[in-house]
Design brief:
Distance between the termini: 31 Å
Shape: elongated
Radius of gyration: 18 Å
Strand order of the largest sheet: 1-2-3
Strand content: 5-15%
Low-confidence stretches: none
Order of helices and strands: EEEHHHHH
Structural class: mainly alpha
Length: 97
């Protein structure tokens, strides 16, 4: 944000005050509405064997998201821990996971 916190929940950035509620509303309005889930994109390009392993691993809480991220990176697949966690928690809004 580049500002400093004022009480209660108001930021002062470059001489302009903006309440957190205003910032959140603005960000929500500007967020992409039709983005495609990164996991869905990745699954489309996988072989059947890799897809089976990936489908099992993505929901296996015994495999840390950071471990899965690093393993995928070794295979040339960039997928963040946040995306993995979002899927594991059922928070993905674009694919229904």
């Amino acid at each position: 944000m580049g500002g400093f916190l004022l009480y209660p929940f108001t930021y002062l950035a470059k001489g302009l005050e903006m309440a957190l509620a205003d910032s959140l509303k603005q960000e929500a309005e500007n967020a992409p509405k039709t983005s495609v889930c990164s996991i869905s994109k990745i699954k489309e390009g996988m072989s059947k064997e890799d897809l089976a392993v990936f489908e099992k691993a993505i929901y296996d809480r015994g495999i840390k998201a950071s471990v899965l991220e690093r393993a995928l990176k070794k295979e040339g697949i960039l997928l963040s821990q946040g995306t993995i966690t979002r899927h594991r928690n059922g928070w993905c809004k674009t694919c229904g996971a």
